[in-house]
Amino acid sequence: MITSFLLKSFDRTIVIAVAIILGLALIVPALNLLTAPDHPLHVPTYLVSLFGKYLTYALLALALDLVWGFCGILSLGHAAFFALGGYAMGMYLMRQIGARGSYGNPLLPDFMVFLNWKELPWFWYGFDMFWFAALMVVLVPGLLAFVFGWFAFRSRVNGVYLSIITQAMTFALLLAFFRNDMGFGGNNGLTDFKDILGFNIQAQGTRAALFAASAVALALSLILTSGMVRSKYGKILVGVRDAESRTRFLGYRVEHFKLFAFTVSAMMAGVAGALYVPQVGIINPGEFEPGNSIEVVIWTAVGGRGTLIGPIIGAILVNGGKSIFTAAFPEFWLFALGGLFVLVTLFLPKGIVGTVQAWRAKRKEYRKAAEDEAARGQAVAEPVAAE
Amino acid sequence: MMNEKKPTSLLYLDGVSVSFDGFKALNSLSFVIEPGELRAIIGPNGAGKTTMMDIITGKTRPDSGEVFFKGDIDLTRRDEAEIAQLGIGRKFQKPTVFESHTVWDNLELALNRKRGVFATLFYRMTLEDNARIEEILSTVRLSNRRNDFAASLSHGQKQWLEIGMLLAQEPELLLVDEPVAGMTDAETAETAILLKEIAKTRSVVVVEHDMGFIRDLGVKVTCLAEGSVLAEGSIDFVSADQKVIENYLGR
Ligand SMILES: Nc1ncnc2c1ncn2[C@@H]1O[C@H](COP(=O)(O)OP(=O)(O)O)[C@@H](O)[C@H]1O
Ligand SMILES: [Mg+2]
Description:
The structure holds two protein chains of two kinds.
Chain A: H1 2-9, H2 12-34, H3 45-71, H4 78-97, H5 110-114, H6 130-154, H7 159-178, E1 190-191, E2 195-196, E3 199-200, H8 204-230, H9 232-249, H10 254-280, E4 282-283, H11 290-303, H12 309-328, H13 333-347, H14 351-386
Antiparallel strand pairs in A: 1-4, 2-3
Chain B: H1 2-5, E1 11-20, E2 23-33, E3 38-42, H2 49-56, E4 64-69, E5 73-74, H3 80-86, E6 88-91, H4 103-110, H5 117-121, H6 127-139, H7 155-168, E7 173-177, H8 185-198, E8 203-207, H9 211-217, E9 220-225, E10 228-233, H10 235-240, H11 242-249
Parallel strand pairs in B: 3-8, 3-9, 6-7, 7-8
Antiparallel strand pairs in B: 1-2, 1-4, 4-5, 9-10
Helix pairs in contact in B: 4-7, 6-7, 8-9
The complex binds adenosine-5'-diphosphate and magnesium ion (MG).
Adenosine-5'-diphosphate is lined by residues 20, 25, 43, 45-51 of chain B.
């Protein structure tokens, strides 16, 4: 059962993409750790972390593609699931600091001591254990998505209304996490991390390992989503996207199909956030900013929605562009991003990968037609030659 | 009198009314479909024919009245997916197929198999399913288009594909809304043959405007107007009815 599911997930493009991503998981850390800093192929540690961050964004875009590209659910709140995963990891990292904080309190993180709190809030229990934090990384976003989706999909909220309430969701979380008394560090968020699983979080080796972990998570998620969308379940998702009422009248419980995709997608976004936080060293409420979720939509659209590979490429390209662009003209980045979105919508509505795929399909069709033509030409020509 | 028929009938509507913003789309509509029956429903635009199908398939809830399937299954309490699983298939007025799937995949999705999330996630095509799809492909004359995207089909072919999907669903009752609208004469004649063929193994309710097509079917006709039944009987009987001529044929 599982094997046939996995076998189905591999088509040529996916195999190549997974191979490339896993290749990167080996090569980039190797070039960082095994070459001297003056070696021409050396990848400096700050770049390893920067690329690692891109990979977590790619995973977030892939998660969005599952619901938006294949099921037509335009979530404008996916950054919230990412941020929740990030906070879960951040809480673990805070508790790893232990007595090494500025106030030297062995149990309470600095911001709690600063707020004069005497004991650890109940929802911080367990986060000193990695396995527990890792579980929360997927459970918390998954549960939120499940509850949110349960109500939204059952009451058949669709289209822009759904998009608007997902924005409202992330905005509400933004406001909540800004509050000091929520117990998540207020607007400063969680930072000053020391180590992860006992390894110094700043160390070169840890950075390389985090990069590799991000790449592996991306590759595994790509296999999982590919398996999902190529199964009968995935075909039904596309059916829901294209003709929801037809799917219903065929007897499928559309809300269950949406809910499953939405929850899995939120969990993937949570994993992305959890890998993001140790690589950037901070998580704060700004990650819930509604604009962040909209950026994810732009990456996905640029790369090509409904293609799985496209959003990965889109996230890496746009964020690479952002890093370069903001270094040169920081104040113009938002205009550039908006302009890019308009251009893509107008001239590449299928995104980069979607356009390439359409172009290849057309060429194949054309070539087949030409072959048919040639075969027919020969059949006609032969009797003439015999005369 | 209606009540006596309830236990034996396949579909039973009694006194069904529904209004939209004060406008009565259905006004105490009653009729009965027997197992194995092929029934034609005619009536002017806005008579409530599509609304009647919405009520039967759970898309719209009636304000009052009873709708029973197979005697005692109350359809007014169930939603679309449940009603479809009970064995009622529906063809929309505007052909509705999955455009970005192939003809084959459209039929695969329609096939009457387990419809849960996990069942579909781990579904594998069996020889039996394969044979069934082949059979339907030839019934709806689309065998040579199996690998083409539904989007590339002609209007008439899409109508047939949708009928094929309904067959795959193996319903006991098939509701077909204006199947020959926009078809050529040849396609219309073929469709009449196809529906008669289908009706051999299940009940079919066809809504249609095309009187020639209704004559081809040669079955009992119900004429609706303003949300209730105007006349019921053979096509000759109904088309000779004074009220039908005034309300529908004469216009
Ligand atoms: N969802 C709806 N909201 C408002 N009015 C509706 C709705 N559905 C149908 N109607 C109205 O009910 C009447 C019957 O429509 P319909 O059942 O589509 O007629 P028919 O299929 O016989 O042409 C029409 O006047 C239509 O405008
Ligand atoms: Mg109608």
